[in-house]
Amino acid sequence: MNLVIQGLDVKTPDLKTLARLTQANGIEQVRPNVFRLVHSTPHPDVPRLCEGAQLDYGYVPEGQRLDQLGLVVMDMDSTLITIECIDEIADMLGIKPQVAAITASAMRGEMEFAESLTRRVALLAGLEEIALQRVYDERLKLSPGAERLLAVLKAHGIKTLLVSGGFTFFTQRLKTRLGLDYAVANTVEIVDGKLTGKVLGKIIDAQGKADWLNRVRTELELGREQVLAIGDGANDLKMLAEAGISVAYHAKPVVREKTSYAINYVGLDGVLEFFEY
């Protein structure tokens, strides 16, 4: 195994300490602030030291190449983008704290997602549809490194699926803007230009995300090991479990504990560093 170390500022003393602990054969610089500790042996102190130095790490099998993947599946809110869209929509009504509290509870796994979404959308009843466009135009920002990640995936012919418990209003715009191959989300009912407070059709919840991953994987005739999934909340756990390789991105502890890799400090393109490309 090679130990990949990356961060916003990787200091030489920290690298040397990690190399000594893991009995690495050498330290290779892959890119600025990205290093590979060659032939490392896992050590229990690595997580603590990396957290103290604000470094992301991952033990990577030799020869794990990006072109072995065929599909990358990712969550939208707080993963591909920096915001929780529904919380920002709620802010337009002056009820962001109430909605954000339900969002946070669901992401920690304390509440079933379908229940949380139904409760949150009900609070939005009467909101003008133009508020959704304002959130997209004024508040929605891509996560750092998102565009580079997608560009490299596209260059390697890897398909992309955006699957969200959020709204198609945002996923479809991102699909067009970023050239994503697939995008799936929930549809809020709008009548006479206003949200009714209802969700149309079956809610895309944790199981729905996992089902869509498998649906697209089957369509593309890929093996489980050819799928990478990225998410941040409890609602992503079933989806992450269906992928051969999973990444927790700036995620809740319950997610970090159950994924192949966790990124806590660098941008979304840090996912690429777990592969040779």
Automatic annotation (TrEMBL):
Record key words, sorted: Amino-acid biosynthesis, Hydrolase, Magnesium, Metal-binding, Serine biosynthesis
Enzyme class: hydrolase
Any single Pfam family the record assigns to this protein: DUF4072
A GO molecular-function descriptor: hydrolase activity
The EC number(s) this enzyme carries: 3.1.3.3
Annotated metabolic or biological route of this protein: Amino-acid biosynthesis; L-serine biosynthesis; L-serine from 3-phospho-D-glycerate: step 3/3
Superkingdom of the source species: Bacteria
Catalytic activity as recorded in UniProt: O-phospho-D-serine + H2O = D-serine + phosphate; O-phospho-L-serine + H2O = L-serine + phosphate
Alphabetical list of InterPro entries matching this protein: DUF4072, HAD-like_SerB, HAD-like_sf, HAD_sf, PSP
Cofactor(s) for this UniProt protein: Mg(2+)
Residue ranges constituting the DUF4072 domain according to the UniProt record: 3-44
NCBIfam families reported for this sequence: HAD-SF-IB, serB
Family, similarity comment: Belongs to the HAD-like hydrolase superfamily. SerB family.
Protein name: Phosphoserine phosphatase
Organism name: Thiobacter aerophilum
